[in-house]
Structure formats: C-alpha cells, structure tokens
Amino acid sequence: MYTRLYLNRTKKKYRETLEMALAETLFLTQRTPSMTMYKVIYDQLVDIKENIILKNVVFTEDEIFGRYNLGAIAVKNFEVEEDEYAQKLSDVFGGSIDYYQMPEE
Q1: What CA–CA distance (Å, rounded) separates 25 from 18?
Q2: Band of the pLDDT at 105, cuts 50, 70, 90?
Q3: If DSSP states are collapsed to H, E and C, what string results for 32-91?
Q4: What is the mean pLDDT of residues 70-86?
Q5: CB of 65 within 8 A of CB of 44?
Q6: What is the pLDDT of residues 16-71, one digit of tens each?
Q7: What pLDDT, on the 0 to 100 scale, is given for residue 5?
Q8: CA-CA distance, 24 to 35, in Å (whole number)?
Q9: Binning pLDDT at 50, 70 and 90, where does residue 3 land?
Q10: Which of 21, 32, 43, 103 could form an S-S bond across to 88 if both were Cys, CB 3.0 to 4.6 Å?
Q11: Residues 61 and 19: beta-carbon distance below 8 Å
Q12: What angle do CA 23, 28, 38 make, to 5 degrees?
C-alpha cells in the first residue's frame, strides 16, 4: 500500500516515490506502447529526476506548471483518490515544486 507524500514529506520519500513511478510507467509503456500518454509521463519523470534530483535545479512554480503536466494527466485520466499510480504521479508533480525545501529524512 502506497503512503502519500504529504504524510512523510521528505526528500527521501520523494525520491522513493519518483523511482516507483518511473518503474511503473516504464512497465506500462512497454506493455502498451500504443498508449503515448505513458511515454509522455515517463519522459517527464526522467526530466524531474535529472534536473530536480540529480542537478538540484530549482524551478519556480510557474516553470513547473509550464514544464510538467503529469499531475494534470493523473487527475484527468485516473481516479487519484483510489489509484495508487495516479497518487504517485500527483505526489511527484506536487513535490517537484518544493523538493529543495524538504528535509532529507
């Protein structure tokens, strides 16, 4: 069972959530390659990992909203309250805004 990021808002939990979302999205992309939505999500997750996690780039909230739409994709295409995959996507998107301010653990 997935524990939402807001219950443990740390960099460690954020990275774990991002890695889970990456693995699930890669699986879904390979299972249904005709669903281009998963490729879009995967590319955004990789970009978040490379820029926000590995390079410590701090984007403004406006830049986040302009650069990533995986939160909107999750809300539009999944039941966020019931679907753990959608919750992970939503948490990754939301956490990308203030990752740099989160405590490590």
Answers
A1: 10
A2: very high
A3: CCCCHHHHHHHHHHHHHHHHHHHCCCCCCHHHHHHHCCHHHHHHHHCCCCCCHHHHHHHH
A4: 92
A5: no
A6: 999 999 999 999 999 999 999 999 999 999 999 999 999 999 999 999 999 999 98
A7: 96
A8: 14
A9: very high
A10: 21
A11: no
A12: 95
Please state the pTM of the whole predicted model. 0.94
Tokens of 78: 């999944």
Residue linked to tokens 């406006």:
62
Which residues, 6 or more positions from 34, have their beta carbon under 8 angstroms from its beta carbon? Answer: none
Tokens of 90: 């939503």
Positive/negative CA dihedral, 66, 23, 4, 100: negative
Torsion, Cα 64 78 102 66, to 10 degrees, reads 0
Hey, what's the torsion of the CAs at 55, 67, 79, 42, to 10 degrees?
-60
